[in-house]
Specification:
The protein is mostly beta strands. The chain contains 6 helices and 62 strands. The strands form 15 sheets. Strands 46, 47, 51, 53, 58, 59, 60 and 62 form an 8-stranded antiparallel β-sheet that branches. Strands 52-61-54-55-56-57 form a 6-stranded antiparallel β-sheet. Strands 15-16-17-18-22 form a 5-stranded mixed β-sheet, with no helix packed on it. Helix 3 packs antiparallel against helix 4 and helix 4 packs across helix 6.
């Protein structure tokens, strides 16, 4: 049933009410017989798209030849996995209905018959229904469990036999995982006792700025072990899957990032090994590691010049920034941005985005052969039995062979009305070919599978070669507690290569923040009802490691912003919002609208940069001077600023007003080069000491439209209320929303509507009414969520703040497949104009 995973979320939350313990060491897992012919990861058991099986079919026909079965219900964008005689995949559920969602499906790998389904809702996500099922599940051959990430960020550990959810995390509500219209959703990977997953995350505290971040959970109980990422403010989401490899004797997690680089992390610790920068946008190709070399590609802008796309090779034995030192070769203008490469008989086989197979010499990057097989490519080729199996997006299926310097077509089909995004997989003599419209299983009936032996894995340098601790890992690395709750911490020691040594028995624990911690690492939160952050530090000799805690009390909550702070415990809120003195803003607006806009922009710059000086100049790709003028509406048109004299004449009076109010201490104009205007403004001493409000401005990179969450995901049956105000720019207004139990009440500015929804692109249970509201006027919004007779009932109302609250609800929606729990939160779309929020309250329903 669809509610299974949500009920399990409640169980995980409840775990924190007692002392939570973690394993005292990292013992070897219970051993199960692992079938070498299983395909537990979408790129195969070796993470390279290669199967060692032989005797596979050379041809087939959808009309019957070598077709063992076709199952429409298994149709998906996802690549399936095969483990212990079962097939697992992710698909849409109840398509185009008020019950639509996502599900993990388990089928008999031989017959294709359904064994179980694990259904779950898609909530608070901009992913359209057509892109549901983007990720692929990963299987753990040692336990039989499967791990799945849904498009809305719901990450589950599922019993592979029964389909029961064992534990789960809502990565959006807990860690700020971003789920966008593009649908790009990553794939988990298992290493030892860890299951590792990633996304662009906008978290809390010192991780409030967006980054492509990885979280390693203990695969047994879902406890977060390490949390780390690449550069801040990446341009893209992405879906390059991390692969595990041993390079120069060191275990490595190798992946393409949303920041435009390829990176290697230590899989047990999350410590970066090296980074290679290649693109201005995200990398979607899953890297191929062969020996100590890493191959990948992209189809975006290169860092230098105007050429698009590249295929490249990296020497993976380096450390730090290896962009220049370890690049072996790079071929630009090769648009290999979706399909992952394979190595066939010492030749690198890639498929470009336009459906062209390109064979390269892996030593030099020189092109050996080319062949067009389709018009568009999204899936990746696989290699087995001397043949390459590949299908273009439009359904052009090919079986290919490499013969010296040519590509030979062994077999081809045009599968009409078939769309291929997932890749073929091979297991036990059968080839599984996923399409959105269904899945084929091809092979010879009753054939016994045969396979060549798998090559020996690269040897890992033994731990005994280096038993000196250089890293301390504090577990759990993240926690969300209530006042009075307890949590057991542990300090684990690792060597320089990221290998586990032991649990430290001489660690000295300390905290910054409320509560107490004992000598053996048992933390107890104080009974203080404040929303607080706590930093836990474990010192072992000269080494130290840290972890973070959010303390969030039970309801009721009330938030005002008179202290000039956005609550530190809110996920996804800081950086995308700041607190301002609203009375000062309005005073400045009366004196000079330009000064009021400068106040917003400068305060955002000071707060989000953490620096008391803001510099604006077009001397870098960020073009900060043009960005400022665009916000002030002085970049184009009759009021545009072109020269230094025009800039001074326009901005000096407004800056002087800000100086008079002690918002600004001083400012300076310069022209570093004749064509560059530079403005440097130093922050003044004035705090937010009056009517503080939270504001969201339109210029936050990749964050003008966003969501934030306030606390525990296990909350339910509550009411959230806030005062809101929308500005107006060029006749356009923002959207402002409240989030309750994974539903949103949205006050829509440009369309002048009021809407309750859970999944914006699908609107499966949404209710929308006309609602006229004015800019620059304070309103009060209220959203109530409740479970009644097994259904979610959502009620919303809005009224002018200086008027009496209406008795009747304005809009009501009912969800027959309810979200049973969810964190309170806020939604905002400030792409057109700023929005302001004050007096946020959350109370339990009576």
């Amino acid at each position: 049933m669809r509610f299974t995973c949500i009920v399990r979320c409640l169980a995980v939350v409840a775990l924190a009410t007692a002392v939570v313990t973690v394993p005292g060491s990292l013992p070897a897992e219970e051993t199960f017989e692992v079938d070498p012919l299983d395909w537990p990861h979408w790129r195969g058991p070796e993470y390279n798209g290669i199967s060692r099986e032989t005797g596979l079919v050379d041809s087939w026909s959808p009309d019957g030849e070598n077709v063992l079965w076709f199952k429409e219900y298994l149709g998906s964008r996802s690549t399936p996995i095969i483990m212990r005689g079962k097939l697992y995949t992710i698909t849409r559920d109840d398509v185009a209905s008020p019950r639509e969602g996502e599900k993990v499906v388990c089928a008999d790998a031989v017959t294709g018959e359904k064994i179980w389904e694990n259904k779950f809702n898609v909530y608070l996500s901009d992913v359209p229904a057509e892109r549901v099922g983007w990720s692929s599940v990963v299987g753990d051959p040692t336990t039989g469990r499967v791990y799945a990430l849904g498009v809305c960020g719901l990450f589950q550990c599922i019993d592979g036999e029964t389909g029961e959810t064992i534990w789960s995390h809502s990565l959006s509500e807990e860690y700020g995982a971003l789920t966008t219209y593009g649908g790009r959703t990553n794939v988990p990977v298992i290493h030892g006792n860890l299951v590792i997953i990633s996304a662009i995350m906008i978290d809390w505290g010192d991780m409030a700025k967006p980054a492509h971040r990885f979280i390693a959970f203990d695969k047994r109980n879902g406890q977060p072990v390490w949390f780390n990422g690449t550069r801040l403010l990446p341009y893209d989401t992405n879906y390059s899957s991390p692969v595990l490899a041993t390079i120069d004797g060191q275990e490595a997690l190798v992946f393409g990032s949303g920041d435009g680089g390829v990176h290697a992390f230590q899989p047990q610790t999350g410590k970066p090994i090296w980074s290679y920068d290649v693109s201005r946008r995200g990398i979607n190709v899953t890297p191929l590691v062969v020996g100590d070399r890493v191959f990948a590609g992209h189809s975006e802008e290169n860092l230098v010049g105007t050429k698009m796309g590249a295929v490249f090779a990296i020497d993976g034995t380096g450390e730090g920034d290896v962009t220049k030192s370890k690049e072996l070769w790079r071929n630009e203008r090769m648009m290999v941005g979706k399909s992952s490469p394979i190595m066939v008989d010492g030749k690198l086989v890639t498929v470009d985005d336009r459906g062209g197979v390109i064979v390269l010499d892996p030593e030099t990057g020189k092109t050996i052969a080319k062949k067009k097989i389709g018009r568009m490519m999204r899936s990746s080729p696989v290699y087995a039995d001397g043949k390459i199996y590949v299908c273009s997006t439009g359904g052009r299926w090919h079986i290919l062979k490499l013969e010296d310097d040519r590509i030979k077509i062994v077999h081809k089909l045009m599968l009409k009305d078939r769309s291929s995004h997932g890749s073929p997989v091979i297991s036990h003599g059968r080839i599984y070919i996923p399409f959105i419209e269904g899945m084929y299983c091809i092979g010879k009936k009753d054939q016994q599978p045969t396979a060549d032996p798998r090559p020996a894995a690269a040897e890992v340098t033994p731990v005994s070669a280096d038993d000196v601790a250089t890293q301390v890992q504090v577990v759990p690395v993240e926690a969300l507690l209530k006042p009075g709750q307890k949590l057991q911490y542990q300090a684990r020691l690792y060597n320089a290569r990221g290998q586990f040594l032991k649990v430290a028995d001489d660690a000295k624990f300390s905290i910054e923040g409320i509560g107490t911690i004992s000598g053996d690492g048992k933390y107890e939160a104080s009974n203080d009802p404040a929303h607080s952050e706590v930093k836990v530090t474990a010192n072992v000799g000269d080494l130290s490691g840290t972890a973070r805690i959010r303390i969030v009390p039970p309801l009721p909550w009330k938030f005002e912003f008179d202290d000039g702070q956005v609550p530190v415990t809110w996920v996804g809120a800081r950086y995308r919002h700041i607190a301002l003195d609203f009375d000062l803003l309005k005073k400045l607006e009366q004196q000079s609208p330009l000064a009021s806009q400068l106040y917003i922009y400068l305060m955002t710059s000071y707060i989000n940069s953490g620096r008391p000086v803001a510099k604006f100049a077009d001397d870098s790709p960020r073009m900060t001077w043009s960005a400022l003028l665009r916000f002030l509406e002085r970049l184009d048109g009759s009021d545009s600023i072109r020269t230094l004299d025009e800039a001074k004449a326009a901005l000096d009076p407004a800056l002087q007003l800000l100086a008079d109010e002690k918002v600004v201490a001083e400012w300076d104009w310069a022209t570093p080069t004749p064509d560059v205007i530079q403005l440097t403004v130093k922050q003044g001493t004035r705090p937010v000491d009056g009517n503080g409000v939270m504001t969201k401005i339109k210029t936050i990179p990749k964050g003008a439209r966003s969501q934030s969450w306030m606390g525990h995901v296990g909350l339910h049956d509550y009411t959230i209320q806030a005062d809101v105000l929308g500005a107006s720019k060029n006749g356009k207004m923002p959207d402002i929303g409240l989030i309750g139990q994974r539903y949103t009440l949205d006050l829509m500015g440009n369309s002048q509507q009021l809407q309750i929804r859970t999944w914006p692109p699908q609107l499966r249970m949404a209710q929308t009414i006309p609602f006229t509201w004015e800019p620059e006027v304070w309103y009060t919004m209220k959203l109530q969520s409740a479970i009644e007779d097994g259904k979610a009932v959502l009620r919303g109302k809005v009224w002018k703040r200086d008027e009496a609250e209406p008795e009747q609800w304005l809009v009501e929606a009912v969800d027959m497949v309810p979200n049973l729990t969810g964190s309170p939160g806020l939604f905002g779309n400030a792409k057109e104009a700023e929005l302001f929020i004050d007096n946020v309250q959350v109370i339990g329903n009576k």
